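In keeping with the milestone schedule agreed at the kick-off meeting, the structural modelling team has produced records for the first pair of proteins. Each record is given below as a sequence line and a structure-token line. The laboratory manager (R.T.) confirmed that both were archived under the project's standard naming scheme.
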Amino acid sequence: MSSDNAALDLSGMQRAVRWYPPAYDIRVEAAPIPQIIDPDDAIVKVKLAGLCGSDLHIYRGHEDVDSDLICGHEIVGEVVALGPSFREGATGRPELYSTLRVGDKVVSPFTVSCGECHFCRIGFTCRCIHSCLFGIPTLPGGQAQYIRIPKAGGTLFRLSALESPGAGSVNRDLSKLADSSLILLADILPTGVFAAMQALQHPKIASLLAGKSYPFGGGFVPGGSIARGQAATALQPDDRTLTIGVVGLGPVGVCATVSLLDILAGLEASQGLVFQVVAIDPLESRRSKLQAVYDTIESSGKGSGRFVVASVEDGKKLVQEWTNGAGCNAVLEVVGNNSALTLAYDIVRPFGIISSVGVHQEPPLPFSGRDVYNKNVSFDFGRCPVRAMFPIALEILLKRQDVFGGVGTEASLIDRIVSLDQAVEMYKLFDKGQCGKILFDPWV
């Protein structure tokens, strides 16, 4: 380790939130402060840690985990120690191995990514060959005072670098952004962006955006154009109206909706896109939160398309009315259970796309191969490649400080910031849907 990266004395104990099997057993205990184990490691002093809906899967005992663990996978903090791989002039490796310093402010995605393997190089960072989720028995999580970050040069996102632009870069004054805002970059905001982009970048949607019939609307088309003159009737205005449903309006659902509206507003301004969005959740409290969020966003960030927050039954009726029974072009499923998938399937149209970022458990999918075949439905499931989505998510975070910048207001995504001592109570409330996004400050 270079002298510039001299670390603090990290011997001793820290406070951490620990889960014990089989379920619903959260304790705040003393644990050893993590140490550098591998040359690529970093130790981060946690400024804030998030309580995420994904944490509830382990909390409820749904993940087949049989050992205790330190919880949490959303953190923003400060680098306090670096392994010997971090040095000036490190070449042939991700940039941070030569630029990351003790004292830098960083945010970490919820999974480890090396930045060097095939999957990382092409942007599928969540499927890195070294991928590992924070907050499991073998990799302690971030609801603690310190956390060890493996493969830190490929995993961490250095916020300090954005405040000191180089030649040709744009200065982003992140000093005005609270840590409570920046922590959204660890998981839920990139995941929301990912849910929207999986749908909008799909070939079935690309044709609609281009105003051409499938398969000639976008992307690769083999051969010539011999038979294109024998097309059906030209597209009508209703054919080009994009209808999207969002199923699940918890914190990730809010991020998905805000991101979707921002992207659609841009397409409306640049291409004249006509769109309509219905956001669905069975809980009135979540519907009210999203409505307050929508009302707060300025017009340039949400466009002029139709937008309605609805209950399950009202949402189904609206989709039928808006589309003359056709259904949504795309549905973002942001829950991770079979009732949400069933609803998404019910409201998507033939040749539609379901973009599912909810963390699903063991039960089989609630539809058969015949169901999917009969409707030509495309499914994109899976974990968000957070490290790859950071730049887009950061742009939305900077634009949407009216929603993401506050704490505890009617239109704030973050409900409250509490001490680790309140973890037992917060897990109970969050599990019952009685609070919104919770952040822990490990130092109060």
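The second protein of the pair:
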Amino acid sequence: MDSNGVDEQMKLVQGTAGYVLEDVPHLSDYILDLPTYPNPLQSNPAYSVVRQYFVDEDDTVPQKIVVHKDSPRGTHFRRAGPRQKVYFKPADVRACIVTCGGLCPGLNTVIREIVCGLHYMYGVTEVLGVNCGFSGFYSKNTVTLTPKTVSDIHKRGGTMLGTSRGGHDTSKIVDNIQDREINQVYIIGGDGTQKGASAIYKEIRRRGLKVAVAGIPKTIDNDIPVIDKSFGFDTAVEEAQRAINAAHVEATSVENGIGLVKLMGRYSGFIAMYATLASRDVDCCLIPESPFYLEGKGGLYEFIAKRLRENGHMVIVVAEGAGQDLVAESIEQQDASGNKLLKDVGLWMSLKIKEHFAKQRKMDITLKYIDPTYMIRAIPANASDNVYSTLLAQSAVHGAMAGYTGFISGLVNGRHTYIPFNRITEKQNKVVITDRMWARMLSSTNQPSFMNPPNGTTEATC
């Protein structure tokens, strides 16, 4: 039990041959004798022709699909989708949606599809939008959301509800939920936001309220664990190509040209790695998970000089969280979401490279630095992310209507699932530099691993 009397124990179901279901909470876990109702989808003409549209209660999805013949069956998650029975009458549902944290392609699509899913699949007519993040619950007005008001928002970037970092006051938020008689809460945001969603769920459970809390994980960096990927990631990689292409054009248009591109990736270098693999024009990719050094044999400076002598130009991609240990006067402050404030490694690196080659006086270089961060965050989702965002939103709606709570909807091994909050907030997803994907990237760029700096090498800082 935690300090509020809420059971923190994981809801586990054991089966044969090492089967483990990490289940999500349900309203019936703490509210007894809840009535159930037939799912309105049974009479929905759009779904009447679908065979076995309803998900069996025993359907689960394995976390790992590559196993040996003697391996235990391992961890599973509950399969997402509509159930034959629901725990809310559509006429009684009063739902709300909130977006928190940074922008990401696909936010408006998720908002739209939660509203349309509730309305068209279940007949829910009361959906509220909470303005400007968690603080909007107690400091801002809400906006009524209907299929008409959200009909074309997926064509725009950003979030129609506004967003903010911080502002989480669990007691005030739940007081507001209770005062407004809201009984379904949809929270869209990254790992910090989902930690807040988890706190809201626990307080709601402590008070014994019939309120379902569903999360839709959002992070452009793809750093949420367990799930295959987060919505907006594919769009970010695709848009990053524009910056890399521009850097390549700049670099190839002059003698000894260097194009330096900084991409998002505070703790995880997935965007940088996948954009590099997709581009094939990148000569060096630097990410937070793989340390690098500048000076000495095998260092970045030596590799730049070598590549310029060979090709006459070079493109470098660096994730925003890479090389922070090399940058002097690292900022120990945090933003309102609790993220460490980072120095601009791209600007720092461009200055260091220019200084180095100016001192060497052996090679004149021309370096162009491109930072497309906010351009990438602010664009609408591409076709792939629009489809993915739609399915995540619909899965969350099905889960809440079925009485599940304290969960996020996410893709695991290509199947949509319900995952407990604690599984996606306990750690961050990071690039494994001993994995084959990183090896594929290294073989694409033919860059050194930078794993073994020479003894006595000290990093210059500015």
